[in-house]
Every structure is written in C-alpha cells, then in structure tokens.
Amino acid sequence: MTPIRHNSSDGDPMLDPVLDAVRDRVLAVGVRRTTLTDVARRAGVSRMTLYRRWPDVRTLVGDLMTREWIAAATAAMPAPSDDLPGRARIVESLVNGVGAFRAHPLFRKIVDVDPELLLPYVLDRRGASQDALLDLLATAVRAGHADGSVRPGHAERQARTLLLVVQSFTLSLRTMTDEDDPGLSTAAFTDELRTLLERTLAP
Question: Which of 8, 112, 111 minimizes the C-alpha distance to 64?
C-alpha cells in the first residue's frame, strides 16, 4: 500500500524530523500543495539537503507512508505476552489493523485529498510496507501451522490472501456501510471481517 523506501536509513538522525515535517504539512494542505521548500523550512534543513535524498515530494511522502503504516500495523498486534494461539493473534492483529488504518489521520487525508497516491500499490505493484506486512503475516501463519490453529497450506500465499482481504476492507469499507442500518454499520462489517478471517484460517 505504500511506495518502496527511497535512499532512506532508519539510523539517519535527519530522517524523523524531515518525515515529521512532511507529515505536518500534508495533514495541513495535502500532498499536491506540499513543496520540498515547505518541508525543508519546517524541518530546519536546507532545500538542497532534501534534494540530495528525495527528488520530489511524492518520494518523500512515500517514505512517510512507509513509516506510518508499519507503525500502525505493529501497534495493532496483540502484546507478545498475550498467550494467544496463532490464529487468534492473526485475526486480532488484522481486525485491529483495519480500524487503526481507517482512523489514521494521514491515511484519511490521503484518501480524501490525494487518493491517486495509493492506486499504484493497489493495482500495479507492492510497496515497502506491504512487503513488511507480508513478512509479519507469513511468520504468524507459520506459527499457526506449528500450533495447529491455522490450516496447513502455502504460508506466503495465505499471507498474501489475508492482505488482499484486509486491504479491501481498509480502502473500500466506507462504500459499503450504511450507519443508519445496524446490519450494515462499520461495527457489523468488522464482525463480518472477524468471522471471515476465522473461517479462512481455521483447520
């Protein structure tokens, strides 16, 4: 769902201030009205410093989305201390993750103002955060295979199928809900997602 990271390093002390600055600017005015000059000024760095690392705003926003989406997905996972079987851990992570993504201020801003940024990662290719999520899911699926809570199968294929399902709920749920009808509310669809995931994974 996000672009591949470009010339960025998690250990770079400049990275977070710049990403924080672009996040603040995008939340205020959207991607199309954000410039590298705006970001440089807000981050307290020179414009040429940014140009050496990011050729344009969209590439910089790609790194921002990767950081934000991975953080949101990780925060949605049950605590490691929770004594949950593999299937329950996967279901809780994905159901919570859909809610976290849909409530995320940056995600909402992009969907409302600059949705074209997401299209390549829905229609054409995977991005960095999708690959990171697939790694997490495949590991969790294998753990479910090991404890018997997830039906046997090709772990990577199962992980990709799960991501396809939750992407559709994340991106398209609001086109299907009707909050005036309790049976078509967001909460009702969340319950349906939980049931779907449970039945997909059950042995």
Answer: 8
Range in 12-26, 40-54, 183-197 with the lowest mean pLDDT: 12-26
d(CA 121, CA 128): 10
Tell which phi-psi region holds residue 44, choosing left (phi > 0), alpha (psi between -120 and 50) or beta: left
pTM for this structure? 0.85
- Are 50 and 82 contacting, i.e. CB atoms less than 8 angstroms apart? no
Domain segments of the chain: what residues?
62-201
∠ at Cα 122 (120, 127), nearest 5°? 70
8 Å CB contact between 13 and 19: no
Going by C-alpha positions, the residue among 36, 41, 66 that lies closest to residue 51 is 36
Q: CA 117 → CA 25, 74, 79, 164, distances in Å?
A: 16, 22, 32, 18
Query: Which residues, including other chains, have CB under 8 Å from residue 174's CB and lie 6 or more apart?
Result: none
Residue 161 has pLDDT above 90, yes or no: yes
- Whether residue 59 contacts residue 22, with contact meaning beta carbons closer than 8 Å, is answered with no
At 43, give phi and psi (nearest 5°).
-85, -15
Residues 26 and 115: their CA atoms lie apart, in Å, by: 13
Least confident range from 20-29, 59-68, 95-104, 162-171: namely: 59-68
**CA-closest candidate to residue 2, choices 174, 131, 170:** 131
Question: What whole-number distance in Å separates Cα of residue 32 and Cα of residue 58?
Answer: 9
